[in-house]
Design brief:
234 residues, alpha+beta, 3 domains, four-stranded antiparallel beta sheet, 7 helices, globular
Length: 234
């Protein structure tokens, strides 16, 4: 059984065989229905503290300040990852995308009032950042996850484009002709990339991977994009 609270559309999948995996079939059928009807997820009103934490984290990315981090972080943050290790991993992620550009964020998402995710633009990619606050007054920053997404170099982008049409045959039969967008979900720049493709009714993820040594194609696939992200509205 699955349901979509915002639209009211639900689905019950039944099967008459052991281990028939009705949940999987039901999931795909439900997602297809929601995409065809173009229903949206509910919109979440974020806490002011959540957006304030986002701006404070953006400031830390530009110029780290341990005193500011001490005021912002809940006690678990440094236990989850030691402070110096976290600072090094953040610096490495920023270097991987050629440094930060500043300006407006991209793809702002708010799964709940206490959570916010966004893409922080860089020169050759972006940082995918997720924050979650504690349920206390005043809230503290409980979770901070930062990963780098490097945009594909010319050679990888060209090879991916060459394989896209073949990989998208099944998806195109369900959702009309697919077109690649300039939005990237994952990637290291040289050996793998996951790029968003748009169909007539929905979004898909195209993943292309090669062996960096032999250049053998390891994966070329198109799958439905997740539909569980909520976008913020003022």
């Amino acid at each position: 059984m699955r349901w979509h609270l915002a639209s009211g559309y639900g689905l019950i999948a039944l099967a008459n065989s052991t281990y028939a995996w009705a949940s999987r079939a039901g999931k795909h059928a439900h997602l297809a229905l929601l995409r065809q009807l173009d229903v949206r997820s509910h919109h979440v009103a974020t806490w002011p503290a959540t957006l304030a934490a986002q701006e404070r984290v953006r400031s830390l990315l530009r110029t780290w300040n341990d005193e500011e981090a001490d005021q912002l972080f809940a006690s678990n943050v440094d236990m989850d990852q030691p402070r110096e290790s976290r600072k090094l991993s953040i610096a490495t992620a920023i270097d991987a995308i050629g440094g930060l550009l500043g300006g407006e964020v991209m793809q702002l998402r708010t799964p709940s009032s206490a959570q916010v995710a966004w893409n922080e633009p860089g020169k050759s990619g972006h940082l995918n950042i997720f924050l979650q606050l504690t349920p206390e007054n005043p809230p503290k920053l409980q979770t901070i996850n930062i990963t780098s997404v490097q945009y594909p170099h010319k050679e990888l982008a060209t090879r991916a484009q060459e394989h896209f049409s073949q990989a998208a045959i099944t998806a195109a039969s369900l959702d009309g002709p697919l077109a690649l967008t300039d939005e990237y979900v994952r990637g290291d720049g040289t050996s793998h990339v996951t790029q968003v493709a748009r169909g007539e009714r929905g979004l898909w993820h195209f993943t292309f991977k090669i062996n960096p040594v032999t250049e053998e194609v390891l994966e070329s696939s198109v799958n439905l994009a997740p539909t569980n992200e909520t976008h913020f509205i003022n």
